[in-house]
Each structure stands twice: as structure tokens, then as C-alpha cells.
Amino acid sequence: MPSRPMPTLLDGADTRPWLGANFWSRQGGPRMWSRYDPDVVREELAVLHDHGLNLTRSFFYWPDFMPTPDTIDESCCANYQDFLNAHAELDMRTIPTFLVGHMSGENWDPAWRHGRDIYSDVWMVGRQAWYVRELTRRFHNHCAVAGWLISNEIPIYGGEGAEETITSWALLMVDAVRAGGGDQPVSLGDGLWGVETTGHDSGFSSIAYGPLVDFVGPHVYRMEHDRVRQHLKAAFICELGGVANKPVIMEEFGLSSDFVSPEGSGSYYRQLLHATLTAGASGWIAWNNTDYDNLRDQRPYSHHPFEQHFGITDCQGRPKPPLRELETFSKELAELELGRAQRAETDTAIVIPSYLTARYPFTTDVERRVIVDVSEQAYLAAREADLAPGLAHEPRDGHGGIPDGYRLYLLPSVKQLTAPSWLRLEELADAGATVYVSYCAGETDSQRGPWWNRVTRLFGVSPQLTYGLNDPVTEDVVELTMTTELGSLSAGSTLTFKASGNVEARAYLPVTVDESLATVLARDAAGRPALVERRHGQGRMVLCTYPLEYFAARLGNVNPEDTWRLYDALAVVARVRRPVHVADPRVMVDSLVLGDGDAVDVVISQHDEPVDVLLEYADGSEPRRIELEPLGTRIIRRR
């Protein structure tokens, strides 16, 4: 079974995973260094420490720390030195962040920037490198420094650019840390908002800058229209971020308590922490340590008032529900020895087309975003079926091919795949894999249709498209009736899907089936082939003529929907091994394997009420019944 990466930063010096909060003192917010109160800072840190946190992320507010192009404010540095000492007193550490020109809904320039480009103006880049080197030189020997971050969400502040320019800037900034003596882990602080996680080509690519940094750090605050998608959003971004082959640290996440009830804020943290634990994250830094009611007249809180209330404590330092959840999670992590843990191996892969990141000519952000969205929906459905999916990226250079070793390959709502990959999929099926491909025409009218090769050879069907046209789905609900048994789906059973999407992609693929080559597994309400199987060697190719994952990705309040039932059936025929499984799609379970050979099952409920579920084990162990609170989670250790 292929492994799922889970690299960490843990070493012999400190075996505790990073668990903490982004930190501005309630006395000053971004201006805390010019209004520094050492007693309040120590009080704030003590609350975090007493609830199990061991880390902060801190910020050199750029306009205060660098008032002119060639000076650093020594009073701010003295206050930061005391801040480090306060961490050491509690055996806590912090991650300093250098280029802080953006924060909480506002950008602040140093007075001397005068519009110079952050990434390409040679003088401006030189001033940044000097600043980074000098601050590193002052503080790198302090025991409280855990790592370094070059910026805070600099795509919002410095803008976007060419990948080559931004990666060169990143190289110079990381080299400045090393020149200043900093040997701790370093990363960019860009939010992991590159094309590989968003589908938008901003020039920031962890694939390009990954060799320069020691970890990548998602910042996740996305709004959604589906609760399951929202609860697993950060987990899916962690999975996508794993393409950099570096440890994934949840560098920023959280919510304003103005947007949610106290109970809702706690359940969001609970869901996110446990979902990302099994998605490869190995550190968590919440946004942020406190509320800022006493700074309501200060920008940015005056014009973004909801930014006052992202704290895990209130403005008096009293714990809010998110801090209670972090405290519980801290105790759970203490039992895991995360540095020696690995994610359980998997038999299931979601194939990510190279069109997401390869920058092929005339590929647009619209097409890339569809890849992200349908892959995410496939991830949700696979998690609902407890398939613990890995992500298999189609190679960007066309060499090496889609990796082998999986029993089930899912290619959800695919428009684009390179020509060599279609040959590779046939090879995988010949070797015994089950390969599932669903059709999607794409959301643009640019060469609308499947960019597929060898359709008859692969699936035993002949497409019946009319050139230049698509075949729209006019029904509000697509119903597929099984004509033969498929794994856990019996003949005569039905799958139903709400149709959605724009006028280009809300379409099906009309086909005729060569019954000497293929078998119709399901038909739609009009009797047309909807699921078709062709055997190849020891395995099979399965075609779905409807973009099921795309439909769901364009809907709100839809999950779980019946795609998980289809994936479950495919898993049965593919002989996918699920180490642990719960029959209820609203209860998801995934596993870690610890250094001593024990396993840890992470169980997450999407039910609003208490639920009693049965954990079933593939190794024949006695099933175990557990109870879960509303939107509850459990971590269960077993031999």
C-alpha cells in the first residue's frame, strides 16, 4: 500500500509539535512594540501556557522596526528581546515574522518605500535582505526562537508576479536569514496561496520555492456553502500543500466570534484540528491569542470591527471555546509522539491533473479552479467512505507517470489529462487496479469537451458528441439505476444527484457501448449508459458519463451526497483495504501508525446530535462501539 507523507520538524531538541497562537498583545495590536507592556505580555503568555500551548508566532511590524531604509529601531528591538525572555521563562518559543506590511484588513508601508516593487526593485530587495539579516543577527541565539517567517501574507501586500521573480526574491530572503546566523526552520509566510492549492496563478508556488524552505504554512479562512466542505477545507489544503514535500504547519486558522456562536467556534476548531491531523499537518498556530475591544478606535479594528474578535481569549484574557479545544488537543498530542507517527497507508488515490500547476499554454485559472474544486469534492466523498485517499499528481514534465501501487484510482470530473497519462491508466488497470473516470466538459467554451485519448480502447464506448455543442443536463436531479451489481451496490439500486453548474459544464457525455468490450453498470432515467465498465487484464476501467463531483462542488448544503456510495462500491470491487471503517458517511475515520506499532484512529462526527457508531477493523479485530458528542471527535489508541 502506498504511504501518505507526514514530514515533521520535530527533532531531539524539542519533541513537542508546534501548538500555539499568533500573537499581538491586547495593549497595542500591531503597535504593541511602541506601546509595550511587559506585565500584560507575561499575563497573556501565561494563559496560553496554562492551556497547553507552547508557541507563538510574532511580528516585526515593519513601519516601527525599520523607520528609515538603513536604520532599525533599537527600542522596538529591546522590547522584542524582553518578549523572547518572557517566552523562555515559560519554556515557550516563538516564530518571528519579518516583513509585516499587511495585517487584519489593512496594508502599512514603511514611510520610505514610495511604491517600489517588493520583489523586483533591486534597491528595495536589498533593503529587505539587510533588514532580515540584521534582525536575525540580533535574535538567532535566543533559546525562544523556534523558526522564522519571511512575511505575513505578502501576496496581499506586495502583490503577485512572475514565478521566477518571486522565487528569486524568496531565495534572497532565506539566504538573508542564514547570513544573519539563523539556522532554525524558515518559511515564507505567504499563506500557501499558490496555484497548487487555489487554482490561481499568483506566482507563489510551493513547488518552486519548496526547495528553499523548511516547511509550508497554510492560512485558511475560506467561506463555504456546505458544512462538511467547510470542516474539511483545511485538511484538503494540507493534502494539496504536501506536493512541496515539506512539513505542513497550519500557520493561521481561526474565526471571528462575531460570525458564530460560542458552541460553533469550538466545534469549528475541534473539526479543523482533528481533520488536519490525519491530512499531514504537524503543527498548528491559531489566529489569534486575544480580542481587541480596547483598540476599537485603532486601525484596522475601527474599519474591520470583526477583526477585534478572532482571539482564543477575550480582551480580559479569559479563555474562549477555541482555547478550550486547543487545550484538549494538546493533551491528545502529548500521547501520540507525533515525530514518530505516520499516516496509515492507503489503497486509494485521487489523481490531480498536471494542468493545475504545469502552466501549459492557454490554460486558464477557470480551468485550474475546476480541478481544485472537483478534487476537493472527491476527497470529501472518499473520506465519507473511509478510503483515506492520497493525492497522486500527474507529473508536470510528462515523465515518470502516475504512480503505481494503488488499488483504486479516482479521476473526478476530468476534462484535461495529458496523452501519456491515458496510456498509463491502461497499464495500471492491466496490472489489477480499478480506474474510475467521470466526464466533465469544463466551465469554458474553449475547446469544450473531453481532452481524452483512446476512449474506445479504454472504456469500450464511442462518444456521440456533436462538434461545438455540449449535451446539457436539463433535469434538476440525475438518477442512475444500477443494471448489474457493483460491489456494495445491488442491481436495481439507485443513486441520485442534484445537477448544478454553469451552461458549459452542466452536461453529460452521450456514448454508444460496444457490448463485446464493455458492460453497462447503470443507466440514467432516459435509459442512456451512465456507468460503463471495461475489463483490462487483472483490473478494470469504469466510466461515468456525468460530472457527479462537479455537480456537488457547485452546490451548497449537499454533503454527504451519493458519490460516496459509488466510491464505496468501487472500493469493494477493487479490494481496497480500510484499516478501520464506519458505515455512516457522517462519521469519518482515519488512522495514524505510531512508532511503537500502535495505531490511532481519529474519528470525526458531522452529526448535530450525539451518535453511537461501530468501528469495524479490516484485520479481523473485534468491532468497537463508541459514542460521539454533537460534532464530536475521538482519538482512540489500539494495538
Q: In summary, what is this structure?
A:
With 639 residues, this protein is an alpha/beta fold. 28% of the residues lie in helices and 22% in strands. Helix 9 (227-241) runs parallel beside helix 10 and helix 10 packs parallel to helix 11.
Q: Which CATH architecture of the largest domain?
A: Alpha-Beta Barrel
The largest β sheet comes out as: 9 strands, mixed
The CATH topology of the largest domain turns out to be TIM Barrel
How large, in whole angstroms, is the Cα Rg? 26 Å
Give a quick set of tags describing it.
639 residues, alpha/beta, TIM Barrel, Rossmann fold, Immunoglobulin-like, 3 domains, nine-stranded mixed sheet, seven-stranded parallel sheet, 16 helices, 31 strands, globular
Please provide a written account of the structure.
Helix content is 28%, strand content 22%. The protein has a nine-stranded mixed beta sheet with strand order 14-13-15-16-25-24-23-19-20. A seven-stranded parallel beta sheet has the order 7-6-3-2-1-11-9. The chain has a four-stranded antiparallel beta sheet with strand order 12-27-28-31, with helices on one face. It folds into three domains: 317 residues, TIM Barrel; 227 residues, Rossmann fold (3-Layer(aba) Sandwich), CATH 3.40.50; 59 residues, Immunoglobulin-like, CATH 2.60.40. Helix 9 packs parallel to helix 10 and helix 9 packs across helix 12.
